[in-house]
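Quick entry between incubations.
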Amino acid sequence: MKKTYINGLGCISAQKTFDTVFLEEAELNENDTILSLKVPVYKDFIPPVAIRRMAKGVKNGIVASTLALRDAQLETVDAIITGTGMGCIEDSEKFLKAILDNNEQFLTPTSFIQSTHNTVGGQIALGLQCKAYNLTYVNGSVSFESALLDAKMKIEEEDTSSVLVGGIDETGDYTMSLFKLIGFIKEENQSPYTVLNSTTKGVVFGEGAAFFALENEKKEHSYAEILDVEILNKLEVQDVEKRIIAFLDSNDLAITDVDAVVLGYNGDVESDLYYKDLADSTFANTPQVYYKHLSGEYDTASAFGLWVGVKIIKNQTIPEIVKSNSLEKSAYKTILLYNQRNGIDHGFTLISRC
Amino acid sequence: MNKGVAITGMGIISSIGNTVEENFISLMNNKVGITTIENISTVHTDVIKVGEIKKTNQQLVDDLQLSPENNFSRTAMLGAIAAKQAVKNAGITSINEYKTGLISATSVGGMDMTERFYYEYFENADTEKYISSHNAGDIADKIANELGLIGMVTTISTACSSAANAIMLGARLIKSGKLDRVIVGGTDALSKFTINGFKTLMILSDGYNKPFDNDRKGLNLGEAAAYLVLESDEIVKKENKKVLARVSGYGNANDAFHQTASSENGDGAFLAMEKAFQVAQLKPEQIDYINVHGTATPNNDLSEGRAIVRLFGENKTPDFSSTKPFTGHTLAAAAAIEAVFSVLAIQHNVVFPNLNFTTQMEEFNLVPQTTLKHATIEHVLSNSFGFGGNCSTLIFSKCE
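Done. Structure below.
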């Protein structure tokens, strides 16, 4: 069966994750409840005329996917697969407000078109004139993992030699205010908002786009191999360890084979319970990594997490800023990534040096 | 020919029936579900027609026996009803007995509720529960919970081809052995958001939709949900399951032409159909019936027609019809309800009629089947094309 190699990366986030090596310019922001993006120079990637009406998610998706393709030295791909939790939510807000405020009159289509969830994937295909397989997954915290799983299957089915796969989400003002209303987001004036050892509910929100150029061929510049991806809708806290052991076992691996574990702590005291026993007991002797204090929480933040995991394998080092314990290893061969939100939409990803 | 993946159960709720049986009877008797909208108050009431399910949200709540505290959107309720039907039809009593998954599809998600309470959220705490049910993924999560399913659950959202892509992924998951069985399909409720969205694109008809007619003016939106149960051959044999039909071919391609319009040559459609034939290992002449996407927009029918002519040959096209004059265009559910109709066509050896057709399109020699036709149906091809150039084709085959 063909293997899946990550040969290119592109990441737009709340940190400087482009034109840098690996988070050396990262800045911890524990004062804001919504992290803002480190914006790239869009006109270096997109004609200025087009930028004006483009949704944030589309712009960021185009930039991140272009970076990944360049990084992989590819002109085009055999498939484009995206994951997004809420799509271009700003345009959804715009269109809905226009409907409600103007009693369904004087509406223009642009916002409606950009509010369809597969608009980013469609725009990337348009730009590349890529007529290949093009799918979009929208399912909370497993939106990106679903895309990754599909991408890996495509390569294993052998009719696809390269796939562009990415996770994109954007913040929208009104939606953020609704999330604040129901306590999804931390309350104001309660900083510092620490992700580890949090005692409060709610998260710090973020946005971003992270793309990966996958191929069935190992190349000199390959970053890592994707060994396996699994998603599961529900899991009890006490069953997490068992599930992870089974996941590793199906890949002929044990807990001790994991050189680093990347966990999706988001600072919500209840949601993070899922990581407690893993950190304290299962992986007590394993270097542990977290990332949402840098990216913020959003449905496809785990794509940022994968970017971190892949960089660890490439650089064979874990930057201090993402360490959640102080353990280190001399070599990082196999990394496990686990993410979920409030006990649903669990994603397990296994990558290794190649 | 590629054997294909077994379909062991189906469930559907649409404007032409609340069950598979009711939908079939409507299709056989020209019983159309296109009417004036009642459940949503919109300024466009008199200038559009819709395929509306004549049940209120309260009736759906009662059908599902949900508690008053529930936060199900209409989309989620329709989906749950259809998915439960499919699972029952497949004779599944212990859903987690085998590696089982749910691949759902939606474009509206919980928007039908969001648009009702958008400003009210800040005034009325009782409405807050709908904030978390807005996102597409919530639909699948709720359906999985209603089924008691613990497993791989995800949602595809590629506009009007969504459910076809869900069925495709389901078939691939069974073939690869990743799952033993999977519930696949889609659901979308009517909403002001989509009604106004399509209105601004000027592709809604103020009359009854006329697919492949030279004087077609646009589509009628509809709402529906449908799910199929796909199972591996091992389980079919072990449990002695009745196979309704098989998913033998599938293909997805991108038109890469425009965000909402299809290319004149129908490149995306052509490539999707071509791919489906490759997977099915069938030749075009083996298709007995095409259930076309046929939304009756000037653009789609021209593009799809061109692709069909390119692939089949202008005078060698099999019988074809669009069933959207019956149900309207049900967006992310379309490919799922049309999958059910394709299976019915195979089971009962019929070609369903393309209603409202009077005048052939001037661009090519394609005339749909306008009356119910009895014929041996071995293989059905079903097309679904969505915004973002997303083109998907499925081929269903009789189970030998």
